């Protein structure tokens, strides 16, 4: 199946449904709405579905809220609690949990700085357990965190850095945060995806590195991502689609022009756009102009959710006090 560029399992499913007019075999979907927040749970259950989706077998939870781009303290708290609840379901009930939180991305590129910004607000405790020689605590988990940077600045594969840390610190789980790409501008900076299948660092900008997953690290890897960019060709393709719909509504049904618009395939349209953009080196990634403020807000929401989900004795009031 031809796919426009997206890292969201939800969008991959939508693309298949648009083309085939049916659900993907081996995919289970559950959806609920909490006020202005839509939660969609997509589970890939077998190899057939894995092949169609191009994503690993596992769970993909998408939290969508169009108002996330606005600065609203109450909304941020609400989404943080929803994120914490969904994350707890994936992590499961674990006593004396040891977790490594990894902030993927580049501090110096705002749309790619989500991971490092989240890590800066995570409540790390591993050093406290070591200092006080404690093995467990009723209210706290053993949390360590790192922002390993990108290969262009370190010269080292991110997976190599994380594998070394995992080998020495022996966490029970790894939680990796990274920027993703969407096929729809409306989902950029308004969507959070959680999955239990790991992640490929740099996937949001089409620069995939070695995967961070259980196969490579030896421990379960939970990925949390937000689409912060959209491929220029994808955005242009969607824009042309809207223009075509407007034209076709005005064109007389059965006319040659109307039939031509209907018969133009998505793959043909996307390939043509990329071909036109190529000479101008214009096949770029696009992000909204207020991305600085949005990334700051999203990093707080995600770090709050992680802190609440991992530490048994911490609630929303505690994390807000810690961050501020």
From TrEMBL:
State the EC number(s).
3.4.24.78
Name the reaction it catalyses: Endopeptidase action with P4 Glu or Asp, P1 preferably Glu > Asp, P1' hydrophobic and P2' Ala
Q: Which domain of life is it from?
A: Bacteria
Tell me how the protein is altered or processed after translation: Autoproteolytically processed. The inactive tetrameric zymogen termed p46 autoprocesses to a smaller form termed p41, which is active only during spore germination.
Provide the alphabetized UniProt keywords. Hydrolase, Protease, Zymogen
The GO annotation for biological process reads: proteolysis; spore germination
Q: Which GO terms describe its molecular function?
A: metalloendopeptidase activity
Show the propeptide residue ranges: 1-7
Cited InterPro entries: Pept_HybD-like_dom_sf, Peptidase_A25
Q: Pfam families recorded for this chain?
A: Peptidase_A25
Cross-referenced NCBIfam families, in alphabetical order? GPR
Report quaternary structure and partners: Homotetramer.
Family the entry assigns: Belongs to the peptidase A25 family.
The protein's job, in short, is:
Initiates the rapid degradation of small, acid-soluble proteins during spore germination.
Which protein are we looking at? Germination protease
Q: Which gene specifies this protein's sequence?
A: gpr
